[in-house]
Amino acid sequence: MASYNDFQLPVYQNTNAASTLIGRDSLGELVTVRLSIPDIILAAIFARQNVLLISDSGKGKTQLVKDISHRYFGGSGEKGLSNFLKAKRDTYVAELFEFTQADVSGGRFDSRTARRLDLTKVSRLVNIVDELNRAPPITQSDCLDLAEGSGSFRGDTYELGRNGYSVFIATVNLDKNGSRDFSGTFQMDRAMLGRSHLTLDLDHPSFSPTEEDEAILDERGYDTPGIKSSQLKDLTPFILEQYQIIKEQSKNLSLERKIFRYLIGRSFGFCNKDSLNDKQGMFPDGCGSCDDQRFCQEVRAVSERTQQTLMGLPYGLGIVAELKHGSPVGFSLGDLLLESFRFTAFHGNLNSRLVNDQYHGRSQAMMDHVVSELRTILNSIYPFINQNYLEPEIVKYNQGGREIIALPTMADALNRARIPFERIRLDEVLSSKGLGNSWIQQLRKK
Fold first, then answer.
1. Which domains does the chain have, with CATH numbers?
2. Given pLDDT bands bounded at 50, 70 and 90, which one contains residue 123?
3. For residues 130 and 133, what is the distance between their CA atoms, to the nearest angstrom?
4. Given 63, 118, 345, 379, which is the most exposed site by the fewest CB atoms within 10 A?
5. How far is it, in rounded angstroms, from Cα 446 to Cα 441?
6. pTM attached to this predicted model
């Protein structure tokens, strides 16, 4: 049984609270757990989800992925379970998995048959590509296959990893200020954003190391600059165990998960300005024609990759938070889903025009706002939950100065007692935000 301390990275330092979860312990006491960027990545690794790290240079991305390779997967040496590729202009993904076997004794060499597939490297559990956009587009395209957990050799496709587990982690240096000071880089293939379950912008204030973290690194006073190596450690048995647990948990399609899926799918994809009520044709430029600046213009129906992220990452976050706390904690699935959704800011779901005009190109800043709004919407839906289905309507009334929400069956009793009340319909709650509500029927009591 591994502990949280076992997963502490030896060199990379970042304790900033990238995510805050509030739950209850076994005694019912409130517990607050703050997760850092290394914690978020660990949750993704538990859930077998790809991670893309982006930022300007100097944010420690290379040290971070090197630590992950060494501390979690035993490094990339002969006995390691990670493949590590430093991208360059002449980099080829085939270098990771192929080798040449020549029989010089016969005096003949056939390049067509001398190439061999290194099955040991094929079976490794994580493939890491550092500075991905230093590789030309054709190599970046090959990395898309790594992200899908597959490769090809002599026309045949093979699966990476083992027992269905293979994770891809990449780093990218982005020239965000337009100074064009990243010589030797190529434009990043934007398809990689879609292949990455999580894209973490390490320039975002809550994703960057704190001043205290930087002071700790200064105090260590390493004699030589550059990337530091650390002791090799293999934590893959525990990682694979958590993956199997998450895999089983994700099969539980609870009502809360169904509500969240419909909300970010069908509700976000609805547009009452479109003749087909489909936002796809209006988004994003057509969304500025609404008279009122409603939430619906900020985000569209999420991609399938986003939905895949939300299948496993919420449970990964819960496991890491429990490890960090040191004892069992019960977290709301809704909160775990919301926090997981925050890390999909680059999946193409946000209104790019608003990202540029109102958030100065900072997608994560806009995503944090969207998640805050979504939390409010979810809280307005929860009162309609009646055990395992949704009520289409609730009643609200005041008693002794307190506002009380009740099921519609209370209406007759309130009438008899001559207590005034208000009927609230769920479809109207969603419509007021410009969100679709047709899915409500699917979750009503049959």
1. 50-196 (3.40.50.300)
2. very high
3. 9
4. 379
5. 9
6. 0.92
